[in-house]
Amino acid sequence: MTQSPVDPTVLVSKLDLETKVRLLTGAAAFSLAPEESIGLGELNLSDGPTGVRGLKFSGGRQVALFPNATLLASAWDEDTTAEVGRMLAEEAMAQEIHVVLGPTINLHRSALGGRLFEAYSEDPLLTGKLAASYVRGLQSLAVGACLKHLVANESETARNTMNSVVDAKTLRELYLLPFEIATSESDPWSMMAAYNDVNGVAATEQDHVINEVVKGEWGYTGLVMSDWFATKTAAPAAAGGLDLVMPGPDGPWGQTLVDAVRAGELDESVVDEHLRRVLVLADRVGALGELREWPADLPAPDSPVRKEQLTRLAAAGMTVLTNDDALPLTRGTSVALIGRHALETIDMGGGSAQVNPPYQVSVAEGLTALLGDAVQVVDGVEVRTRPVAARPGFVLDPTTGNPGVHVTLLGADGTVLDDRHDAPPTTMVGFDDDFTEPVATVRFRARVAAEGPVEVGVIGVGAWDLRVGSSARSFELRSSGGFAEEMLAPPVEIGTVDVAGDDIIDGEVVLRPPASTEVVEGGTEIDATANPLAGVGLFGLVARPAPQPVDEVLAAAAAAAAQADVAVVVVGLTEEQETESVDKSTLALPGAQDALVSAVAAAARRTVVVVNAATPVLMPWLDEVDAVLWAGLPGQEGGHAVAAALLGDIEPAGRLVTTFPVADGAAPAWNVTPVDGDIEYTEGTFIGYRGHWAGTVPTPAFWLGHGLGYSTWEYTDASVSVGGPSPAVSVTVANTGERDSREVVQVYLEPSSSDEPVRLVGWATVSVPAGGSARVQVQTDARLWRAWDTESGEWSRIADGGRLLVARGLGDVRAGLPL
Ligand code: BGC
């Protein structure tokens, strides 16, 4: 790419104040304005972190859906995240996107955090190193990364107003550390300031964090943008170091910031510096001077190369939690595959990380593809409280017979604005669609590929008429309130009808006009015009087999399990728990899934449980089953990846990236509901495994770093060498199993003082053939030997002494090396 011949500082000096300030707020939801007079082109951003959705929030083009961040991180492998970064850059370039809004590098403080699925780990070193390699991969193709969300943004409840109360030591040693590591090792071209306040100051106004620490101490050369709609003020945010307000074109800066400069409240040089950083970013991504040309020959989201990559990346991160010789499955055994997640595998979390993938392979499809008739698939218990859009395959386009729904969008005068096929029928109208006129009516047709009682219904605000065969229903759905609610929980209504097989659903919704005040549940009056989604929301069609009583489901599952050589039960969470904007209230599996596992385990010869969730769940049935495979949210190739992992075609060689508590509350940090607006990070630096090791809370079910793979390992001759900035550990690992395998050698520092928590200081991965051995060296990271001295405001080295622990997670320590 050609570098801009012009110095950004010189370009800034050519613009007047109004123009400069205008360029400091986005031009649209996901783009920055061009400015021809200085050769600045339009600059496009898109959400990541595990899929590049594009410029539309909803219903956009089809793009590859990657495994979620915790699953990718479970490989504990910088080459993996670098590959992911390069793949994301390709996905971005295919859409002419300059910056991908990821990685998310907040830490897993409380397991209740709704958005942990987007972030790598509870550990700052693992998070920082993986983020750095992801950024290097992405930026090697001149697509910018965006570290988010700066900082102390670990939960979602009241996320726009909550105040994280974090002492300086904890902030430095834990929550800022991944940002520090990624900054020094990969020079990310942007960062995103979070919604929350930190110690009473908005994250978007954090002079201390942004100006003093990030841009000052770390010498950060990139740009800091706000999270979407997060900026609360003009001059204080600009003075606090925020460079760019997102989204736009409206926002709190504009004329208010111009006036603040004119009134002498803010020096114009501050505005200039922000714009200089915008231009540096534009230059780096090819949007300044000679604009970049985009490659044309990039892999399609459903291309063979993507299928191979996405299957391999997902399967390699899957983690064997327990295994009493039940895994891998042997070909030739008969399998009862049970559970709603087997049929409707959850491949991504909810919120801004969602993408529109070309397809999603369920575990039922993946395992049947490998084992054919040897697999009997049995649906499980209900796992959601809210209905979701019909699964393509259950409904078919009546004209073409393709899975999905035929949709026609009409303007107020009946003009056809769009006539298309939707699979799945989740977003017939998106709030950011750009038709020439507003959509007034949606008509849709689908054939139900089933017989018997079927639940049908509708999702979204409006007056609905639905005919199914000979029965007809009408629904009037109203707005549930604000933006996030409407996005994440649009109104929905369902009813049960009997279909005779191949019945057609004919539907029409007339959208409610947005210009009205309405009274929502609880008697609150809302101004519907203030809600950008009112009357133009997301429209889905619900159609699925009517739910069966739980005892009948359990009986059918147990009967199938008793007939098979092995029962594989797939359980998990859904986007109701793992989503942006909402936290969990428990780690228990939703619905009667625990009862389902127990019923199957009681009837089956062997029981394997697959956990389809990104974050910890409780497993009260652990002693009743023979193996547990944690499968994360595995992306569009999820079903193929789970099948490959179950059969050992790809070793599920993952190690946990977060500690699994043994019960609700049995963790060092738990509460995610602000008290008087505050979340106090009182556990300090003792989150996750660090707090469990200190003994303040019960021993966890599984430690960070735990994972069995498909082999066994012997560790010998561990030794420490000092000298250099930090010690290194050497150890010989022997693969004592019968399969070639991959080991993750982890080194933890247990400091001499109990005021300092145990911590991961380094790791190395090694692949060793069955019966072979390897000498592995782990260089510990000097940054983990520091302690922040709050009084002097400086780093010091932690006290001498203590031990280095060589471990496979702290539940399986193989050597203790005194220091
Ligand atoms: C999220 C960000 C995201 C942004 C744009 C916000 O709600 O917190 O992570 O990048 O929306 O979609």
TrEMBL record:
<dbReference type="InterPro" id="IPR019800">
    <property type="entry name" value="Glyco_hydro_3_AS"/>
</dbReference>
<keyword id="KW-0378">Hydrolase</keyword>
<dbReference type="GO" id="GO:0005975">
    <property type="term" value="P:carbohydrate metabolic process"/>
</dbReference>
<dbReference type="InterPro" id="IPR026891">
    <property type="entry name" value="Fn3-like"/>
</dbReference>
<dbReference type="Pfam" id="PF14310">
    <property type="entry name" value="Fn3-like"/>
</dbReference>
<dbReference type="InterPro" id="IPR002772">
    <property type="entry name" value="Glyco_hydro_3_C"/>
</dbReference>
<protein>
    <submittedName>
        <fullName>Beta-glucosidase</fullName>
    </submittedName>
</protein>
<dbReference type="GO" id="GO:0004553">
    <property type="term" value="F:hydrolase activity, hydrolyzing O-glycosyl compounds"/>
</dbReference>
<dbReference type="InterPro" id="IPR013783">
    <property type="entry name" value="Ig-like_fold"/>
</dbReference>
<feature type="domain" description="Fibronectin type III-like">
    <location>
        <begin position="743"/>
        <end position="810"/>
    </location>
</feature>
<dbReference type="InterPro" id="IPR036962">
    <property type="entry name" value="Glyco_hydro_3_N_sf"/>
</dbReference>
<keyword id="KW-0119">Carbohydrate metabolism</keyword>
<dbReference type="InterPro" id="IPR050288">
    <property type="entry name" value="Cellulose_deg_GH3"/>
</dbReference>
<dbReference type="Pfam" id="PF01915">
    <property type="entry name" value="Glyco_hydro_3_C"/>
</dbReference>
<dbReference type="Pfam" id="PF00933">
    <property type="entry name" value="Glyco_hydro_3"/>
</dbReference>
<dbReference type="InterPro" id="IPR017853">
    <property type="entry name" value="GH"/>
</dbReference>
<dbReference type="InterPro" id="IPR001764">
    <property type="entry name" value="Glyco_hydro_3_N"/>
</dbReference>
<dbReference type="InterPro" id="IPR036881">
    <property type="entry name" value="Glyco_hydro_3_C_sf"/>
</dbReference>
<keyword id="KW-0326">Glycosidase</keyword>
<comment type="similarity">
    <text>Belongs to the glycosyl hydrolase 3 family.</text>
</comment>
